[in-house]
Structures are given as structure tokens and as C-alpha cells.
Amino acid sequence: MTVQKLLHAVDTASTWIGKAFAWLIVALMLVVCIEVCKRYLLNMPTSWVYDVNNMMYGTLFMMCGAYTLAQDGHVRGDFLYGSMKPRRQAFLDLVLYIAFFLPGILALTWAGWIYASDSLAIHETTFNATPLPIYPFKFFIPIAGATVLVQGLSEILRCIVCLKTGEWTPRLADADEIDVVNQQLAGSTYVDEDAKRDAMSKAKQIDESARQRHAGGQT
């Protein structure tokens, strides 16, 4: 297996996990809507919805971490990073991954496992009139840490390849904001064709400019 295929295999796994757990957004919306209707229309509020919301949102947030890393979507100081050449970007990333990322994620995964194991040992539940088991949710902490760790190791390998070749290894393509803009404009019945083309052209120019800054000024 080539390095490119290995990197894409890890990216694919992280993307699949992230998109699978992203469906929790739909579940969250349904639970909140049902609770609002029961509380304000039927005067029958529930005692467990708040805890369920927290658990689902926490799971969504944690399990999408590897996907965000695979798409290079985490926040960074782009005003400095974007002006660097790829090799310098890779060197900076590699130092930060080794100095901060690996110790932090390893600590999170290990502590999360202990945290979840202790919760399972006592069959921990929520503190309300309708107690819910918490320990299944807490096991997502070490699982999420492990997925981010694997993706992080892939990113470290990507940095090493860039240091050798001077170019970033291409990432897996995924839906970008520009795709959403194009889709929304294409389906709009309130904007004429000339305005659509003009808006799409400007959006593509902005997107391309951002990509060039991220690539360290390469064109």
C-alpha cells in the first residue's frame, strides 16, 4: 500500500465516522421539537430531555473530531500559517503535533477510558426523576480520542511526506461551502440567470483565493 492510499484510507474512515454521527443532529432536532410541543402545548414536560440532549450533542461533538481533522477544518492562525510555504507549514505542524497533539490526545484517551470504566463499574445514571444510564455515553470519550489519535498519526505522516516532497498530499474531496452556494443558487427561483452566474463567479474567486493562501501562496 502506498503512502497516498494509506492516508486516504484513514481519511475515508474518519469521514465515514463523522458523517455517520452527524445524523445525531436530526435526532437532536426531533427530541427538542417533541419536548417543546409537550411542554408548551400539552403541559407535559419531561425530566430526561435535557440529559439526552447533552449526551447526544457531546457524542456528536467528540465523534466528528477526526472528520474535522481529516478535512483540515480546525481553527488555526491562518494570517501567519497561510503565508508560509508548504515545507514550513509541514515543519510547524509536525512540531505542534508531537509537542502538543500527541500528549494531549493520549492523555484524553487514557483518562477517558478510566472515566468510562469507573462509570460502568457503578452503573452511573443521571440525577433526575427519570434516571438514565450515563456509562454508555462516557465510553465515547476514549473511542473519540482513539479516532482522533489515528487521524493525527496520519497527519504526522502527511507532514513528513510534505517535508520530503515540498508539496502537500491531496486530501479526499468532500462537500465544500462553495458547493452549497452553487446548489442553492441553482435551485433559486428568485434570482435571474445573470445574477446567478455573477454570484457563482465571485464565490469561486473567493474560494480559490482562500485555497491559495492555505497552500502557502502556491498557484
Provide a concise account of the structure shown.
With 219 residues, the chain is mainly α. The protein has helices at residues 3-21, 24-40, 49-63, 65-70, 78-81, 86-121, 135-138, 140-165, 177-186, 193-214.
SSE layout and pairing:
Blueprint lengths: L2 H19 L2 H17 L8 H15 L1 H6 L7 H4 L4 H36 L13 H4 L1 H26 L11 H10 L6 H22 L5
Helix pairs in contact: 1-8, 2-3, 6-8, 9-10
Order of helices and strands: HHHHHHHHHH
- Sketch the major β-sheet: none
Total of DSSP H or I helical runs spanning 4+ residues: 10
Q: What number is the mean pLDDT?
A: 84
The whole-angstrom Rg is 22 Å
Given as residue ranges, the uncertain stretches (5+ residues, pLDDT < 50) are none
For the record, give the distance between the C-alpha atoms at the N and C termini, rounded to a whole number: 30 Å
Structural class: mainly alpha
Structure, explained:
By secondary structure, the protein is mainly α. The chain folds into two domains: 3-174, no CATH class; 178-219. 73% of the residues lie in helices and 0% in strands. The protein contains ten helices and no strands. Helix 2 (24-40) runs antiparallel to helix 3 (49-63) and helix 9 packs antiparallel against helix 10 (193-214).
Keywords summarizing the entry:
single chain, 219 residues, mainly alpha, flat
